[in-house]
């Protein structure tokens, strides 16, 4: 599974890559890191990724979710406690 991380900072990349290595994540699970926040425009970056991981200021509104779905995304993971940025009816 390819997982796209939005709103990625150097500390996100370092910690996620370290955890993946420690957990023995196989090459079949590719992590892709993107600096932009998720929105309807940046969602195209995740094309081909089955999962996306978003942060608190990302926007998973209807437009972004439709772009993600069209690109093959089937799962969304959050690096935050809240989920108010997700259009749950569309998701």
From TrEMBL:
<dbReference type="GO" id="GO:0016616">
    <property type="term" value="F:oxidoreductase activity, acting on the CH-OH group of donors, NAD or NADP as acceptor"/>
</dbReference>
<dbReference type="InterPro" id="IPR058205">
    <property type="entry name" value="D-LDH-like"/>
</dbReference>
<feature type="domain" description="D-isomer specific 2-hydroxyacid dehydrogenase catalytic">
    <location>
        <begin position="4"/>
        <end position="91"/>
    </location>
</feature>
<protein>
    <recommendedName>
        <fullName>D-isomer specific 2-hydroxyacid dehydrogenase catalytic domain-containing protein</fullName>
    </recommendedName>
</protein>
<dbReference type="Pfam" id="PF00389">
    <property type="entry name" value="2-Hacid_dh"/>
</dbReference>
<keyword id="KW-0520">NAD</keyword>
<dbReference type="InterPro" id="IPR006139">
    <property type="entry name" value="D-isomer_2_OHA_DH_cat_dom"/>
</dbReference>
<dbReference type="GO" id="GO:0051287">
    <property type="term" value="F:NAD binding"/>
</dbReference>
